[in-house]
Amino acid sequence: MPNLVDPPQCIEQAIEIFTACYSPNDQVYSHSCLWGDFNFCLNGLFEYEVEGQLHLAPPSYGLWIPPYTEHNSHAIDEQPIHYVAIRLAPELGRNISAHTEILSVSPFFRALVEETLKAKDHASLKMYRHLLWVIYDQLQTTPKHQHYLPQSHHPILQPLLQHLRAPEYFQLSLQQCLTTTQLSERQLLRLSQNELHMGLSEWRNRAKLLYAIQQLKHGVSIKALSFALGYQHSSSFIEFFKRYTGKTPTQLRD
To answer: Domain HTH araC/xylS-type, which positions (predicted)?
Structure first.
């Protein structure tokens, strides 16, 4: 393991895990921290504003915010949210990123954090330190993204993205949506990669996922939601949802 803390046995002085429960529409006002923060939700959806840019983090993703970075956040779910912040001392945070990043949260990482929270009060200090090192290793190696659902001010791409994320058009195929532009698919692919760092198909899938999470929390049935998102069979929607979140729609809703 990297020898970044002196001595390495004091890892518990360089990593803190904070948990809180937020009610719908609760807000955390603008602030910055001396340490870096990795923020994610065990359930629900948080919206963050970091230096004027909006970031969304659904349950399978979290947000890394470097030290001295002004940010605020609020709960945009209809149910209470169990929130976790992993705070890293500057000497550890330098190995994560110097910029705000979206990090993938695997089922293993989620279970690891929950186990570490239990171990803090009930396990030996040696075991607790070991779990903190594993958390730190996971944060260094997990896939990173600049934004879960990035936006663009490009005069062609901006209205197209608004079209792609509109629920009333989810039943249309991507090709049908692209007929509103005069660019070829190859030109649009190049444009989306330059502006969004991903293809339009992936971007639209993420927009559908965020919509699906919100609708599930509002009690919309899986069958109705499958149809609204353009899937002929509920099984196809369930497979899509599990691929992105690691859970079935029923598991996430419950």
So the answer is: 154-254
Decide if 150 is inside a domain: no
Model confidence pLDDT, tens digit, residues 161-196? 989 989 999 999 998 888 878 888 889 989 988 888
pLDDT tens per residue across span 17-63: 989 888 877 788 888 899 999 998 887 777 788 877 767 777 678 89
Domain that holds residue 96: 8-145
Distance CA 149, CA 51 (A): 17
- Cross-strand pairs, 17: 86
Given the structure tokens 């001396």, which residue do they identify? 34
Indicate yes or no: pTM above 0.85: no
Of the candidates 236, 157, 232, which has an alpha carbon nearest to the alpha carbon of residue 200?
Answer: 157
Q: How far apart are CA 16 and CA 132, in angstroms?
A: 9
Q: Which residue has the tokens 């009333």?
A: 168
